[in-house]
Protein 1
Amino acid sequence: MVQPALMQLFIPGPVGRLEARLWEPPGDEPARAAVVFCHPHPLFGGTMNSTVCFRVARALQEAGLAVLRFNFRGAGLSEGEHDGAGGEEGDLEAALDWLTECYPALALWTGGTSFGARCAVAHAVHTRRPSRIVLVALPVTAFDCSAIEDLDTPGLLCQGEADEFGNLAELEARHPDLYGGLELAEVGRADHFFEGRIGALGNLVRERARRWLAEDR
């Protein structure tokens, strides 16, 4: 078990070290699963401290998970330069490797918001490694997100009703044949950044994670 509950650290990545933060569940409760949650697009200011990334990670921690956030290559204090063509998937794989060493007995989840969600989908499709996935604000009208059609990892895909990069209806119109184990949800009146609706998003993620952990016992 890794201590303390909040840890600032650097982990080895494919092109240099990656800045990261680890949260363990609050109190004395042992972690019941471990998750790596990925941040929005670094070329548009996204980091592991972006509001949606931070708050979803906190909700997962409160549900009982050990949560690792990290900065993709070139973001924050992480070494390297932005790739955008698969390199960030390698960063996610390195983060999962590090988390596996810390929690070898726990199920591994992944997820992300916006660009981070797209990376998490591509990684899961290529590796089939995570047992659950948590996707928020997949940018279906801004980027090619067709990998979602090949995803067969159970989890949650949550869009904002007013997301300028694709709400749930737009996602389903583009990708109508999604895996049945992927639960679809929408937060009413929420834009891509969930301004004013971040609490509703956190509640949704926390509830789903607690249910999955109960089911997986």
Note: The chain has five helices and eight strands.
Protein 2
Amino acid sequence: MRHGKKFNHLGRKTAHRHAMLSNMACSLIEHKRISTTLAKAKALRVYVEPIITKSKDDSTHARRTAFSYLKSKEAVTELFRNIAPKIADRPGGYCRIIRTGYRLGDNAEMCMIELVDFNEVYTAGDAKKATTRRSRRGGSTTKKAETTETVDAVAEVVEETPVVEAAEETPAVDETPADEAPSTDEEKKDEE
């Protein structure tokens, strides 16, 4: 019986499963996004997130532990050099799984697993916005300075613009329909 055993074996023996997850974790760390089946992505998330958490502490022990899981010097270097500083303030949830449909051959549910902080589409729109608070004491001095500069600039433009009386200088326009309009310069001279 398999009561209470929630680990997905992915239809593989232990050594094959560990090697596959290690290779997928290295690919995820190096490329920041990979496409795979949903079951493998869920197993990979469970496998790689503790490794990423360990990478926040850049020590020899943490590097050796990560290397024992990943088996790739390049992936460990990328993890500790580029990924760890970017996820330092994130308390967990480093991977995002986005379902992409079903595979044509065997109808397996496919998805894309990616590192959350390395997606430009989501993070560009989600830039940190400056929080503003209203208080009774008034605004900050920078906002007051900006508004006074804007008001001064508008006043200068208004002073420089000459006031033109539209009624006196507007010439009378001869409105002729498009089909009756003269087509060449010679016809225009004939009509005058």
Note: The first helix runs from residue 14 to 31.
